[in-house]
Amino acid sequence: MARMPVVFISHGAPDALLHAADAVACWRDIGQNLPAPRAILVISAHWETRQPTASLSGAPETIHDFAGFAAQLKRMQYPAPGAPALAERAVALLAQSGIGAELHPTRGLDHGSWVPLSALYPHANVPVTQLSLMLNGSATQHLEIGRALTPLRDEGVLILTTGAITHNFAWLDWRAHAAAEVPEARAFADWVGAQIHAGDVAALAGYRDTALGVAAHPSEEHFSPLFVGLGAAESDAAQRYQPRFTYGGLAMDAYVWGMNKRGLQ
Q1: Contact between 86 and 157 (Cβ < 8 Å)
Q2: Which element (helix H / strand E) includes 260?
Q3: CA 24 to chain centre
Q4: What is the pLDDT of residue 259?
Q5: Of 226, 43, 79, 29, whose CA–CA distance to 152 is shortest?
Q6: DSSP secondary structure letter of residue 245
Q7: How many CA atoms lie within 13 A of 142 on its CB side?
Q8: Which of 5, 26, 73, 238 sits a CA distance of 20 to 30 A from 34?
Q9: Residue 20: which of 223, 241, 187 has the closest Cα?
Q10: DSSP labels for 203-216?
Q11: Which of 47, 21, 18, 23 is nearest to 161 (CA)?
Q12: What is residue 260's predicted lDDT score, i.e. its pLDDT?
């Protein structure tokens, strides 16, 4: 079995499926070019727990964890089967690396998971389980979580991490679905791209030592999934995708490690 790639997606606002056509087309393209996974382990910015926690749900609920958006979004469902055996395997791998982890009996899929999955795998036919971030965990801790999960790639599992390259609400123009890019958001997105291209994980892990990094992420949870992806990717090269920004300040960049646009590396 070929080693599966690792994916990071900036999932944007909850209404991305309605108003971020360029990003959704990008996600569909990524999904069509990925090898078929046996199951998906998704790590989203929208679930944080004291220690990493994986869901045992056999039929994950579609969680509508937002308000103030179109009623149509509340009616959307992503009825993928769960992957409880994968949840147990992920927790076991974390334990082997000395990382305490737990299982949750019923946790479903938050919008950071089901929104991009709806474009990546629109038939909702691939088993999926969600793994939480570590509440207040550092970049280094999330890198270690990703490294511990790397063996899953050789077991047919797609590790999908979703968050945001930029996540400063003060940069957003909610009046327009497409707006001029905020220069600081573009600058940080391109800085991230340059560090990933150079393989400079240490620089990325120190992003909060820069004024631009703190501005791009007033809180850390939307950037933490990127570090899980970087850890799981090991030394694989990354392909950067750059859909149009949404609401002016949300960079919608996606990264795929271990695959180029023609298939596996």
Answers
A1: yes
A2: strand 259-260
A3: 14
A4: 85
A5: 43
A6: P
A7: 31
A8: 73
A9: 241
A10: HHHTGGGSHHHHHH
A11: 47
A12: 58
Q: What is the DSSP string of 60-119?
A: --B-----SS-HHHHH------B-HHHHHHHHHHHHHTT---EEESS--B-HHHHHHHHH
| Mean pLDDT over each residue of the chain, to the nearest integer | 95
Residue at token pair 């090269």? 237
Q: What length does the chain have?
A: 265
According to DSSP, residue 206 is labeled T
| CA–CA gap between residue 48 and residue 17 (Å, rounded) | 24
Number of neighbouring beta carbons within 10 Å of residue 252: 25
- Coil, strand or helix: which one is 259? strand
| Predicted confidence (pLDDT) at residue 264 exceeds the cutoff of 50 | no
Identify which of 5, 1, 2 has the alpha carbon closest to the alpha carbon of residue 161: 5
DSSP code of residue 121: S
**145 near 91, Cβ under 8 Å?**
no
What integer pLDDT is reported at residue 74 of this predicted model?
A: 95
The amino acid occupying position 18 is: L
Q: Which amino acid is at 153?
A: R
What is the token pair recorded at 262?
A: 């023609």
Phi/psi at 243 (5° precision): -65, 165
The CA angle 82-95-111, to the nearest 5 degrees, is 35
Q: Which amino acid is at 223?
A: F
Q: Would you state the structure tokens that stand for residue 64, as one six-digit string? A: 């509508």
DSSP-assigned letters across all residues of 153-182: GGGTEEEEEEE-S---GGG--TT-SS-PPP
- Identify the bridge partners of residue 8 per DSSP, sorted by sequence position: 161, 255
**pLDDT average, residue stretch 75-80:** 97
